[in-house]
Amino acid sequence: MRALLLLVVLTVSTPALANHPGELLDETMAAKEPAFEPADRRPPAIELRTVDDLEFDLHDLEDKVVVLTFLPEGCGPPCADQQALLVEVQEAIEITPMRDMISFVTVASPDSPVAPSANDANWLTVTPRDPEAVAEMSAEWAELSSRGGEEPMAYVLDRGARQAGIFHGTSFAWVNMVLYINGLTNAHPPESGLLDRIWDLFQ
Fold first, then answer.
1. Which UniProt key words apply to this protein (predicted)?
2. H or E element: which one contains 202?
3. For the whole model, what pTM was predicted?
4. Which residues contact 21 (CB under 8 A, 6 or more apart)?
5. Could you give the domains of the chain?
6. Residues 126-140: tens digit of each pLDDT
7. Vertex 90 angle, CA 6 and 13, to 5°
């Protein structure tokens, strides 16, 4: 039933949403989903060493649309509930051709409850070696929002690791995030401008 509903929604809604974020996608989603906030600032870099002594660099995923969340220590039920909602998003995406174009990334403290994903192949759980890093990164990324507040945020990055949009808390409809991701995957990958190339030199 969910697959049929998603197929109908994507078929009806894609023409309105399949634009680059700088054009109509952000405005359309902001009008449709109160928990959505457009954000077009370049996001902070994430380069860290994990507890497993592996290196993680968010730039390595720049050919994909990325759904990024943070689970700092003590976040508790709000983060757990958001993760469960994102599992619904992932399950919906798994039945579409988008599944190979998306990567879910959760940066989590060691004691954070991480929801089981529908497909571990496109959901990475990254635990930094530095125990303070998750809270610091979460606070740094939260500055991208003009709303403030204590609710966890889910960041959707378009290809090229540019900021695309923020979904706040757990009140957003999973289908709206799926539609937003669908709009990003249908857009042409953004070309790097001069400022982007200069920025990349310092990463």
1. Signal
2. none
3. 0.83
4. 38, 40, 158, 164, 165, 183, 184, 187
5. 2-187 (3.40.30.10)
6. 999 998 999 999 999
7. 30
